[in-house]
Design a protein that fits this description.
elongated
């Protein structure tokens, strides 16, 4: 319309929902492109929908596909990726699997779950935790709701004054709270599920 029908820039911009400044910028870029010798692929360019995947996501895609072939669920895959330093959400993992043609896993028997290869992580030594702002996923964060009650009823004082055994590395409070955390979690049999020990919420 602007070049063929000789209509004004303001009229064309209004008809197609552009601002006047935005349309004149398009025209300026178009004229600059015409001055180039190679304009191949400029008029009919196929662009992918959605945002581009990051390089780290592309690197993790191979791991995700390989783990699904071994019958890993999305949650199992995320645990493995977290252990390898790939911070992808479960939705991203699901989308990658769907794009590769994988359907949802059927309900797995206990024997099948026990055959999965769990990621190996070097055990960290016990150190003092610094309170810093951070985000992480946990299925055991609800246990932390018990802490205010322990403080309110001075249960922590009773524990420290008790004769409960302790070691140089693990004090009375840490030892007892570990038992409480294990009892208060929703895991029935720890021998059948090794993923709980990598839950950072449980560690807190």
């Amino acid at each position: 319309m602007y070049f063929i029908e000789k209509k004004s820039a303001k009229e064309v911009a209004r008809n197609f929902g552009y601002t006047y400044r935005g349309f004149t910028t398009l025209v300026s870029d178009f004229r600059a492109k015409l001055k180039e010798k190679d304009t191949h692929g400029y008029y009919f360019v196929e662009r992918g929908k959605g945002k581009k995947r990051s390089e780290k996501t592309d690197q993790a895609s191979g791991i995700i596909i390989d783990l699904r072939k071994k019958y890993y669920s999305v949650e199992d895959i995320k645990v493995t990726l977290d252990s390898k330093g790939y911070k992808l959400c479960e939705k991203t993992i699901y989308n990658i699997l769907a794009s590769e043609g994988f359907s949802r896993l059927p309900r797995r028997m206990k024997a099948v779950k026990q055959q999965l290869e769990t990621p190996r992580i070097d055990a960290e030594k016990s150190i003092h935790l610094d309170v810093v702002a951070e985000e992480f996923k946990s299925s055991s964060a609800g246990i932390l709701c018990l802490l205010p009650f322990l403080k309110r009823y001075e249960i922590d004082v009773v524990i420290e004054q008790s004769s409960f055994p302790r070691t140089k590395s693990i004090g009375k409070m840490s030892s007892i709270l570990s038992f409480v955390a294990l009892k208060a979690s929703n895991i029935r049999r720890y021998s059948a599920d090794n993923l709980w020990c990598m839950d950072r919420g449980m560690g807190l």
